[in-house]
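Support request from a user on the community tier.

User writes: "When I paste my structure tokens into the form, the page sometimes reloads and wipes my input. The last time it worked, I copied everything first. Here is what I submitted, just in case something in the input itself triggers the reload:"
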């Protein structure tokens, strides 16, 4: 053996060696209390000891936000941690993977930032099917409580929604046009608002992920519909709008990483 050993370590080796000398065909594996836990002493049956090294469990760090990836890699770039490291990013997370060329995944430590969708986006996804209708009061409350910061011209839109009036009368002619439709041969319904024309489409500017360092929002166009018969309303994201918003935000994350991290950057799953 080589290297300095303190009194406690020598005593431990002596005691272990004495026990091992009286044991036939047995080995003892002893972790050294003053050395890294990856280094051990293998005590042989004859009482002698040899150095042995075991694999260090991979590091699994959690970073607070995307900006921390640059700071973390800058601090670690002079250490062995950054050997063959790669940064991977996708819709779910950003991962700094150490020893990324190693075939054994158990030896590849990593630092991860989880990408969590914002409450506004989660709420908007509930309306994608087009099957969720709300009463007038419920719809106004939804806009005020969930989407107030997302709505373009929020005050004007809410005034329009609050002032919507529903009418039904006998007329007898079939007619289908905006905000007006025939209900049969003799009954017609109509919906109108005192504060301007009722829109067919509105745009929500939605923050995609909760990460505080991702400041921007993404426009998501939604169809707005009113059922004249029931007086209920619905908001339906147009096809592909939510996914386009998420893809655009992920692309921005990739650009942020490319501008701030001195490591290979890959879009995908590690």
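"...and here is what came back when it finally went through:"
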């Amino acid at each position: 053996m080589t290297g300095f050993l303190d009194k406690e370590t020598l005593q431990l080796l002596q005691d272990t060696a004495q026990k091992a000398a009286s044991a036939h065909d047995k080995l003892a594996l002893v972790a050294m209390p003053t050395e890294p836990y990856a280094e051990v002493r293998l005590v042989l049956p004859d009482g002698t000891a040899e150095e042995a090294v075991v694999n260090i469990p991979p590091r699994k760090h959690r970073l607070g936000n995307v900006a921390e990836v640059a700071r973390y890699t800058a601090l670690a770039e002079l250490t062995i941690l950054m050997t063959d490291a790669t940064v991977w990013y996708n819709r779910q997370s950003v991962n700094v993977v150490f020893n990324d060329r190693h075939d054994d995944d158990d030896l590849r430590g990593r630092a991860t930032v989880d990408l969590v969708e914002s409450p506004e986006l989660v709420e908007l996804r509930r309306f994608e099917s087009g099957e969720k209708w709300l009463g007038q009061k419920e719809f106004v409350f939804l806009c005020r409580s969930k989407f107030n910061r997302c709505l373009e011209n929020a005050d004007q839109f809410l005034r329009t929604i609050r002032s919507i009036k529903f009418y039904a009368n006998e007329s007898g002619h079939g007619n289908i046009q905006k905000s007006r439709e025939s209900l049969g041969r003799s009954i017609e319904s109509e919906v109108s608002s005192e504060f301007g024309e009722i829109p067919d489409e509105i745009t929500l500017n939605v923050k995609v992920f909760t990460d505080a360092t991702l400041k921007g929002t993404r426009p998501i166009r939604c169809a707005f519909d009113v059922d004249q018969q029931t007086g209920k309303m619905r908001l339906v994201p147009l096809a592909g709008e939510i996914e386009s918003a998420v893809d655009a935000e992920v692309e921005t994350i990739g650009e942020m990483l490319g501008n701030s991290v001195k490591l290979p950057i890959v879009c995908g799953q590690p």
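Agent notes: The reload is a front-end session timeout and is unrelated to the input. The helical segments are 7-21, 67-76, 119-125, 136-145, 154-162, 241-260. Residues 119-239 form one domain. Escalated to web team.
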